[in-house]
Amino acid sequence: MSGGVPRQHVIRWILAWILLSVLAGCSTWFAPKPPPVTEQPAPSPEPETESPPEAASEASAPEPANPPSAHAEAPETHKAPPRPVHRRPPPHRAPPAETPPPPAPVAPAPIVTTRLLSSNDTRSLLDARVQRPDGKVIGRAIDMFVDKEGEPIEMLVNLSGFMGIGDRKVRFPWSAFTFNMAPKKTAITLSVPRGQPPAAEALKKHGPASASATHDDAPLLRLIDATVERGDGSRVGRVTDVLIDNHAAPQAAVLDVGSLIHQRRRIAADWSALRFVRKNKDDGLTVQADLSDAQVEAAPSYEPEQPVRAVSPAPPPAKPAATSTASSR
What we know:
The chain is an alpha+beta fold. It is built from four helices and 16 strands. The chain has helices at 7-29, 53-60, 200-205, 293-298; strands at 112-117, 122-124, 129-131, 137-146, 152-159, 168-173, 177-179, 188-190, 221-222, 227-229, 235-245, 250-256, 266-270, 274-278, 285-289, 308-313. The radius of gyration is 64 Å and the shape is rod-shaped.
């Protein structure tokens, strides 16, 4: 053929197409058969899980075409507001009760009361110097006698002889003495006319003093060495001295409260704590004091030349008054 496609080229194209068709048919014919199709049960639908709004928004948000540069600002994303979380309020608890502070320890009530005696006008009677009005010492006081009211009636004086020879004990009326109980001074002055023997009138009235009281002296009590008892008859102590003030009034009795077991000790019992009684009609006076053993132990000791505290039993505590409330009808 002239001016066209050569015949050989056409034949080659045809043979190539036939060859390709044969090869394609062979792959279809000789390929393995596919397995038979069987119906499979549909899978059960899975429960939908709520994805957090942030993840959903991120998933749904399209990716930017061009990634933002390092210096570019990140685009604002509108996040869904968080769900309100409803929490149960905590149970109401009552505030703990305040524990009251422990009560202050109550001091025990005192079982005795004391009274301070002035050292300027109170002095012991025993062995006090007795003088005339002119200042001459004639003897020493050694005892006193009281009545059932506790009033001093007489004083027993040891009149001095010459160098101890001719001493005698004479009782004088209490009213015949004046007292100056200041320390370091003659304490008692006996009112005796000048030139008259001091025991003249006393001897006419009473006679020589003896250790035991006569029948006429039964209403009086010789106080020094007298035994002080309680109302039940138990022993408290023994009178060893009496404290007198400048007004001739006894203020306290010094008691020896020691025993064979306990160490000897003396206390000053207030004169108001003493009672002078007669147990029987024919008996003489006895002195009593309502001081228990515990009160005697609690009493301060008596020491000469030291401040004196006269002790007496403490009054019982006052009972609270019973209040009666009238019910209204």
